[in-house]
Design a protein that fits this description.
Largest sheet: 6 strands, mixed
Strand content: 15-25%
Strand order of the largest sheet: 2-1-3-18-8-19
Distance between the termini: 31 Å
Length: about 425
């Protein structure tokens, strides 16, 4: 956030310098701090329009604006696709087009083929495009370069493979205490969440809060419990090992040799310093060849009651142009204010060409190792308060439910009947909004 405010001050300073100019203004609401730098470049280049940024940490729950609040024109952020999207945004269908036989596309049209299909579909409601994708992130398993010999596939890895390879890596001393442990589900709750999500739990927005596939969730919870008991003895053993050896960041954990894998996401991994990334490698975490995008896909839309819809469309066309995004990547690299950010809005670009042509020049680990369009699976529409709901309901439940049954060292009983259900947790969580 310090970086954000540093950039924001620069942006506001520029706006103050330009206040004497007769330029029309568009207001951009966002929860992406990187947008401050992007809008600064936009304002430098545009003679007839100026973009003003409004940062909303809880963007999805800030719509519609309060009566005494200035209305946004453009909205860019995560979790915008939900049951209220159609009420808050206009259709962007007219902005999209397809090339004709001559390879030409209509004036002021954005070619649909520029985007990943599944991401474009994510922004549709009843077949019409209300949101356009901006960026996304993917789950990965990282490991030290020294341990490449353990991984057979050059690009992907599946759950069963992680379990098998990690088991082979395990080692104990003469007293039966683990001195090496390949990987443990209980080390990272987000790994368990990714696992249940990939295997059909299908968390999504429901009529009240959320719905899910209960049988698929239970099946994967049992899979996690079996993994722990069969491979690492117990959750207590996993947590004891973690307490002794895994108190450092993930990139240091894998370089120590104590563990083989660490779970991460592309935004986390590629935000590391270059020398830390160079000592590590990764594989895309997949299920039957599919890679499930993280829930917080960044999208852009135009507010239904925006004052300047035509100028808002001009901004979106500027922003979703591959050449401009290349310049934004260069700008982020040049303006590295003591921190490292990944890609466009801290993720892969929604534009295929940007990822394929430009990202490998900034991130060497991506050379020859970009996921194919057909392998990317978008999440379901989720409620605006999904971040809170996930952190306070879903994660605590799957963490407790996936513990092995016997944990004498922790003195915790994890029989399913003793664990508070998701429904019970939802009820308690909902009280804070009543």
């Amino acid at each position: 956030m310090k970086r954000f405010f540093f950039i924001l001050i620069a942006t506001l300073s520029f706006c103050l310098i330009s206040c004497g100019e007769k330029r029309k203004t568009i207001t951009v609401w966002t929860d992406r701090a990187e947008m401050a730098s992007y809008l600064e470049l936009f304002n430098v280049e545009m003679n007839d329009v100026k973009a003003v940024i409004v940062y909303k940490e809880q963007l999805a729950t800030s719509l519609p604006p309060m009566k005494d609040e200035p209305r946004p024109d453009v909205i860019i952020g995560s979790l915008l696709q939900n049951s209220k999207t159609k009420k808050n945004f206009i259709s962007l269908e007219s902005m999209l087009g397809e090339k004709n036989k001559k390879g030409e596309i209509g004036k002021n049209k954005i070619d649909k083929e520029n985007f990943y299909n599944s991401l474009l579909d994510y922004g549709k409601i009843e077949g019409k495009q209300y949101l356009l994708p901006v960026s996304f992130n993917l789950p990965i398993m990282i490991f030290s370069n020294e341990n490449k010999k353990y991984i057979s596939d050059k690009y992907t890895i599946e759950m069963d493979e992680i379990k098998e390879i990690a088991a082979e890596y395990n080692a104990k001393n003469s007293t039966g205490i683990y001195t090496r442990m390949g990987f443990a589900p209980s080390w990272n709750a987000n790994f368990i969440y990714s696992a249940v999500k990939m295997n059909g739990a299908d968390f999504r927005e429901g009529e009240n809060t959320i719905v899910w596939n209960d049988s698929a969730l239970d099946m994967m919870i049992e899979y996690m419990k079996d993994w722990t008991s069969e491979t690492n003895s117990s959750t207590a053993a996993e947590q004891d090992f973690s307490f002794k050896y895994l108190y450092t960041p993930s990139y240091k954990q894998i370089s120590s040799g104590r563990c083989l894998f660490s779970y991460s996401t592309t935004d986390e991994f590629f935000s590391l310093a270059p020398e830390q990334i160079e000592r590590s490698d990764f594989r895309w975490l997949t299920r039957e060849g599919m890679i499930f995008a993280e829930d917080d896909i960044t999208t852009v839309g135009i507010y239904k009651h925006a004052k300047n819809k035509s100028l808002a469309k001009n901004f979106i066309r500027w922003f979703l142009t591959s050449d401009n995004q290349k310049r934004l990547l260069d700008r982020s690299e040049t303006m590295n204010l003591g921190t490292k950010t990944f890609g466009i809005c801290h993720g892969f670009s929604s534009l295929k060409l940007v990822n394929e042509r430009y990202f490998p020049t900034f991130y060497k680990n991506l050379i020859g190792n970009l996921p194919g369009e057909s392998s990317i699976q978008s999440p379901f529409a989720l409620p605006p308060r999904w971040k809170s709901l996930k952190e306070r309901v879903i994660i605590p439940y799957i963490t407790e439910a996936s513990m092995s049954d016997v944990q004498e060292n922790l003195n915790v009983s994890t029989n399913k009947k003793d664990i508070q259900t998701i429904e019970e947790r939802l009820k308690n969580w909902s009280k804070q909004f009543n």
